[in-house]
Amino acid sequence: MAPGTYASRNEGDSSEPVTAPGYPPWSEAAHTLDILGPMKSQQTAQTMKPATAAKKLGVYLRATPAEFQEGTVSRTELAALQTDPPEWLRELRRNGPHPRPVVAAKLGVSISGLARGGITEALTTEQIDALKAENPEWLQKERATQAEVRKEAARLKKRNAEQQEQSSPTRS
Asked: Where is the composition biased (Polar residues) (predicted)?
């Protein structure tokens, strides 16, 4: 039975509404679109926390200016920072301190590899260069591990592509 129709509670032709007294039957209820139609939507700029914006910009939040850390960043502001970075952002990207994902990428290791090597804080470009020059045993090991992971990922990607190619119908 469709909503808003009458159900028969008695045998025979007599039927009474199922809707409680004082309420309109379902078919007479106002539709949501009828109510919301004349309302105007308020367009508000989407904002993000400073930590999210710093992550998207690839910078260490604690090294950013206080105004950046204390406010919110809209998507428009983030796009402007990415396309035309101010001097403080260019300086942070150039010299750091860099967040762990950036440090890991610059060293050619995983974030977990950094932790295993005892690196848990942000590093400056100078500190990263010193680590590369020193080339400690843990860094050599982690780079080798990362190279194996990349090699295995490439092998799996190739295998999956070949399987996909074989399973797809050939066209004549």
From this structure: 163-172
* Cβ neighbours around 136 below 10 Å, total: 11
In order of 52, 59, 66, 170, the CA distances from 94 in angstroms are: 20, 10, 19, 51
Residues 53-112: tens digit of each pLDDT: 899 888 998 998 988 888 888 898 888 888 888 999 999 989 989 999 999 999 999 999
Q: Tokens representing 161?
A: 């592509």
Cα–Cα distance, 158 to 95 (Å, whole number) = 38
Q: What is the mean pLDDT of the chain?
A: 81
| Residue 146 reports pLDDT greater than 80 | yes
Exposed/middle/buried for 99, CB within 10 Å: 0-12, 13-18, 19+? Answer: buried
Separation between Cα atoms, residue 172 and residue 160, nearest integer Å: 23
21: tokens are 């007294």
Q: How many CB atoms lie within 10 A of CB 102?
A: 19
